[in-house]
Design a protein that fits this description.
- The complex is a heterodimer of chains A (345) and B (297).
- With 345 residues, chain A is mainly α.
- Chain A contains 14 helices and no strands.
- Chain A has one domain: ABC transporter involved in vitamin B12 uptake, BtuC (Orthogonal Bundle), CATH 1.10.3470.
- In chain A, 75% of the residues lie in helices and 0% in strands.
- Chain A is globular and about 60 Å long.
- Chain B is an all-alpha fold and 297 residues long.
- Helices cover 73% and strands 2% of the residues of chain B.
- Chain B is built from 13 helices and two strands, in the order ααααβααααβααααα.
- Chain B is globular, with a radius of gyration of 19 Å.
- Chain B starts with a helix and ends with a helix.
- The chains are: A mainly alpha (345), B mainly alpha (297).
- Chains A and B meet through helix 5, helix 6, helix 8, helix 11 and helix 13 of A and helix 3, helix 4, helix 9, helix 11 and helix 12 of B.
- Chain A: Keywords: Cell membrane, Membrane, Transmembrane, Transmembrane helix.
- Chain A: It is found in: Cell membrane.
Chain lengths: 345, 297
């Protein structure tokens, strides 16, 4: 418990450090840093209705981030959440075309499942390459993100193209209203239920099953797990597939919920933000939920800033980036300060 | 034919400079995913520098200064604070892309792109059809050669490689891996500044938000594809430029038969294939970093 507390404090210290760096950048770029940070807090949590908006962004991010956490836990640096998110949404969109006209209570689960399969598929090949031939997953998943982005451009301006769409951004034909799982505000009982189910299942998986324990051990010392008789490649591939499926599920929720269609290059920072959430939460499932609310707040503030406060949305990207810069840092100084709080060393 | 070669050199040169930055970092043992951010900072600083000082030399010096500063920040976070290089690099990229967007908005108001009155000096009519290329294109082969000499034929280069491959052994013969990484990342900062300058002020004369559009990541892919050898990585970057140029050609020639977006994915696919192949040939490449391993440090 004390270790957990220290991890939380450590995360908070580095997030604070990142915010100071942001304040410097804002000041340097000619904005008043305090005004900017206040506007961000206002847009994220303080103004009326802000919490609902933040939750709308937090839920899909939470689902992707839990998956990222599972693969990081097992020691695989799967940074391909963005690509898996896109391919999931693309598969769900194709499935929606195929099942058009079916009863909603059958079609909706079918779409969710095809999205998960799509995401898992996009994690399958880097997983196989990594576990069968030792090809580094950082590169393959990074390349996979770009390929998925191009695939999305192709699909939305080709096979799924909405002929009535404006020329500004290619997008798919809208999903039939009967199959939508939320209105365009994006917060509905269905989505909340899915997120809660994912959270509970993944918590049980990580903390209460042999798989979770072995996967965490495999991340720390793969050889040892192998010697104990576990199949490292099975563990690894499963963690790749789970993280891919969850990212795909998040993509499908964005498609079937708030967006109602897929557009080329939609939500380009989703995967990166999810990775940050997993890292800020130190890969714990409960922590991921808390961090997702924070980053969801930032995402909703990104929409609020330019319209309501007249400040550029890029401010949010900078905050995210600065947190990324520092979140994995392990400063001796910080450790020393924390140890004064009574950590057994 | 000339047209195609010019197009390839134009799109390839910025990529090659940034690739060389990635190569030197890679040899020092740093996976530099901040290349994208450094490149866009270089591009932005060059154009803004031209607008503010009216001098191309001053503009490039400003770009170099800021890129080196950003590289030192990356070094500080990775080396001193022991952050994970991949996440920190992605963070630097985000800082670059977001920071330049913010800077352009705050300096020039809400506009998506900034046009400068002039760009890098051109080669001039003495070079015939190739006279439209900028001097940094002509300098590129020499820089590649210089990089090869530096990395493969000097004491510094060999020590750098030793520091990257086995820091502990390097330390035992008196090298300082931490300082070597600082030097390597700083040289990389200079190269990224030039690459960014060539992108924004070589054949074009403007900066647009997010104008690097993944070129930095492509450069990183070229580093891996080229097995972090300066010449190999240069050819990998050139190959990506060729595929890009041919993709546009194919689009013009075959129209709708081959979807252009899918052709554009070829370089990425080639990288995956290349990394897989080099892993096979070397008998199972080792993974660069495991997150959990870093966590336990």
């Amino acid at each position: 418990m004390k270790d957990n507390l220290i991890a939380v404090v450590r995360s908070l210290i580095f997030v604070g450090l990142a915010l100071i760096l942001c304040a410097l950048v804002f000041q340097f770029a000619g904005y008043n840093a305090l005004t900017m940070l206040w506007a961000v807090a206002d847009g994220a949590f303080l103004r009326s209705g802000a919490i609902e908006q933040s939750l709308r962004w937090a839920l899909p991010l939470f689902i992707t981030a839990v998956g990222v956490g599972i693969s990081f836990r097992a020691g695989f640096f799967n940074i391909g959440a963005q690509g898996q998110f896109y391919v999931g949404a693309i598969c769900a969109a194709f499935a929606a075309e195929a099942f058009k006209g079916g009863p909603a209570f059958l079609v909706i689960p079918a779409l969710l499942i095809s999205g998960m399969l799509g995401g898992a598929l996009w994690a399958l090949w880097p997983g196989l390459l990594r576990l069968r031939s030792g090809t580094d997953e950082v590169i393959t998943t990074l390349m996979g993100n770009f390929m998925a982005g191009l695939l999305l451009v192709y699909v939305t301006s080709g096979p799924l193209k909405d002929p009535s769409g404006s020329g500004q951004q290619a997008s798919s034909r809208p999903l039939d209203a009967a199959y939508r799982i939320s209105d365009s505000l994006g917060l509905s009982p269905t989505i909340i239920a899915i997120a809660v189910a994912v959270g509970v299942l993944m918590w049980l998986l990580v903390n209460r099953t042999a798989f979770g324990v072995l996967a965490s051990l495999a991340g720390r010392n793969g050889t040892m797990v192998e010697w104990q008789g576990a199949r490292l490649w099975k563990l690894g591939l499963s963690s790749f597939l789970i993280s891919g499926a969850l990212a795909g599920l998040a993509g499908t929720i964005e498609f079937m919920g708030p967006n109602g269609r897929i557009a080329s290059g939609f939500l380009p920072a989703h995967g990166f933000t999810a990775i940050l959430i997993a890292l800020v939460a130190n890969l714990s499932v409960v922590g991921t939920a808390a961090a997702a609310v924070f980053f969801g707040g930032l995402a909703s503030a990104a929409l609020y800033l330019p319209i309501m406060a007249g400040l550029p949305a890029a401010a949010i990207d900078i905050i995210n980036a600065a947190i990324a810069l520092f979140i994995t840092a392990r400063s001796k100084l910080v450790d020393k300060v924390l140890r004064l709080g009574g950590r057994p060393s | 034919m000339n047209e195609i070669i010019i197009a390839i050199l134009r799109s390839g040169t910025p990529l090659i400079y940034v690739t060389l930055a990635g190569v030197i970092a890679q040899r020092a043992g740093v996976w530099n995913l901040g290349l994208e951010g450094l490149m866009i900072i270089g591009a932005c600083a060059t154009i803004v520098g031209i607008m503010l000082t009216n001098s191309i030399l001053a503009a490039i010096l400003i770009a170099v200064f800021i890129c080196v500063l950003a590289s030192v920040l990356l070094w500080f976070v990775i080396d001193r604070l022991k952050a994970n290089p991949i996440i920190a690099g992605l963070g630097l990229t985000g800082l670059g892309v977001g920071g330049t967007a913010l800077a352009v908005q705050s300096i020039f108001g809400s506009q998506a792109s900034v046009t400068a009155p002039f760009g890098l000096p051109k080669l001039g009519p003495a070079f015939g059809a190739y006279g439209v290329l900028s001097i940094s294109v002509a300098a590129m082969p020499f820089v590649v050669f210089g990089m090869w000499v530096l990395l493969r034929r000097t004491r510094f280069g060999l020590r750098l490689a030793a520091c990257g491959e086995h820091p502990f052994a390097a330390r035992s013969v008196g090298a300082n891996p931490s300082r070597m990484r600082l030097v390597a990342l700083s040289i990389g900062g200079v190269l990224c500044a030039i690459g960014g300058a060539e992108l924004a002020a070589g054949s074009l004369q403007f900066f647009a938000q997010g104008m690097t559009a993944g070129r930095g990541f492509m450069a990183f892919a070229a580093v891996i594809f080229g097995a972090s050898h300066p010449v190999g990585a240069t050819f990998a970057a050139l190959f990506f430029a060729v595929v890009g140029a041919l993709g546009i050609r194919a689009q013009l020639m075959f129209g709708d038969k081959i979807p252009h977006d899918l052709l554009q994915a070829l370089p990425y696919l080639a990288t995956v294939f290349g990394v897989w192949l080099s892993g096979k040939l070397r008998g199972g490449a080792k993974a660069a970093s495991s997150f959990a391993e870093l966590k336990d440090q």
